[in-house]
Amino acid sequence: MSKRPAFQFYPADWRTEAGLRLCSMPARGLWIEMMCLMHDAAPYGHLTALGRPMTAEAVARLVGEGVGPVKKWLAELEANEVFSRNDDGVIFSRRMVRDEEVRQARAAGGPAGGEHGHKGASHGAKGGRPRKEKAPLSDPERGVILPPPSSSPSSPSAEEEEDSVANATAENPVEPPEPVNPEKVMFDQGKRLLAEAGIVNGKAGSLLGKWKRDHGAEAVIVALGKAQREGAIDPVSFIEGCFRNGPQSRPARQSRNGFLDAIIDEERAARA
Fold first, then answer.
1. In whole angstroms, what is the distance from residue 267 CA to residue 150 CA?
2. pLDDT of 82 higher than 90
3. 31 in Cβ contact with 77 (< 8 Å)
4. Which of 8, 9, 10, 13 is closest to 266 using CA atoms?
5. Is the pTM of this model over 0.70?
6. Measured between alpha carbons, how far is 105 from 221 in angstroms, rounded to an integer?
7. pLDDT band (50, 70, 90) for residue 106
C-alpha cells in the first residue's frame, strides 16, 4: 500500500481540547511535530523509528531542539494526558490510532464500498477519494448549434418569470440564522450533563452560574465538552478538576470567530 499523503486534523478539537490547552506553546508545537512523525511510523500513530520506540534524544534530533527542552515538553504533554503509552511504553496518539482502525474497517468493505469514495475499497486504505467521472459535454461544448425554440403564446416571458420569482421572494423572505448565545449553550449543555448525573435543575443552574462567574463561559464550555467526551462518572468533580489544573484567573477573551467555532462544535457534539 502506498504511503498516505495526509492525516485527518480537526482545528476545532485542537482549540478546545482541555489537556492540550493547559500545555505551553512550545509543548503544543512539539506535539504537532510528533504527530507528523507518527503519521510515517509503523504501527500507525505510534512514535517509533524502524519499528523501535523513539527516545527523547531521537525526537530532539529530528525536530532540531535540545534534549533538555524536549524532555521537559514531553513531560508536560504526558502530565496533561495529551498522549498515551502502550504496554511497551511506546508513545501513541489515541485519535490517530482510532482513525486508522476506522479507515481499515472501511477498506475491508471490499469493492462494494468503492462507490462510496474514501469509505471503501483501496481508497479507504489510502485515505483518499476515487477520481470522479466527468459529465458528458453539452451540445454547445461539442460545437453543435441548435435552432432557437419557437415562441408560444402560452409560455411565460422572461420578464414574467423574473416578476414571479421576485414576488415569491417577497412573500417568503429568507429568515437570517439565529445568532449563537454562548450562555444559553453553556446552560443547556451543562443542565443536560448534570441531569444525567442526578443533579436537580435548580442546583445545576447554581453550579453553572458559579463556574461562569469564576472562570467565564468559554472555560465552562470547554470543561463540559471534555467531561462529556470522556464519560465522566462524577462530572462536578471532573469539571472542577479541569479548573484547578488550568489558569486560576478568568481566561482572556478569544476572538469572536474562534470562540463561535468552539461553541458551535460543542453544540453539535451535544446534539449528536
1. 55
2. yes
3. yes
4. 13
5. no
6. 33
7. confident
- Determine how many CB atoms are found less than 10 A away from the CB of residue 89: 7
CA distance 37 to 45: 8
93: nearest Cα among 49, 52, 36 = 36
Distance between CA atoms of 128 and 211, rounded to whole angstroms? 44
Cell of 81: 494526558
Question: Quick one: cell of 51?
Answer: 519499528
Q: CA-CA-CA-CA torsion for 253, 254, 256, 261, nearest 10 degrees?
A: -130
CA distance 8 to 20: 17
| β-sheet bridge partners, residue 49 | 52
Integer Cα distance of 32 and 90 in angstroms:
17
Taking Cα atoms as reference points, which of 97, 110, 80 lies closest to residue 8? 97
Compute the distance between CA of residue 268 and CA of residue 245 in angstroms, rounded to an integer: 26
pLDDT value at position 185? 83
Residue of 154, 152, 184, 161 whose CA lies nearest to 263: 184
Query: How many CB atoms lie under 10 A from the CB of residue 208?
Result: 23
Considering only residues 240 and 68, tell me which one the structure prediction assigns the higher pLDDT: 68
pLDDT score at 249? 41
Q: Where are the alpha helices (DSSP H) in 131-200?
A: 158-171, 182-196
Beta strands 52-53 and 48-49 are antiparallel
Provide, rounded to the nearest whole percent, the portion of the chain with pLDDT above 90: 24
Provide the H-helix boundaries in 93-181. Answer: 94-107, 121-126, 158-171
In the three-class reduction of DSSP (H, G, I as helix; E, B as strand; rest coil), residue 22 is classed as coil
Cell numbers given for 43? 504501527
Residue 99 CA: distances (Å) to CA of 94, 109, 122, 247: 9, 16, 16, 31
193 pLDDT above the threshold of 90: no
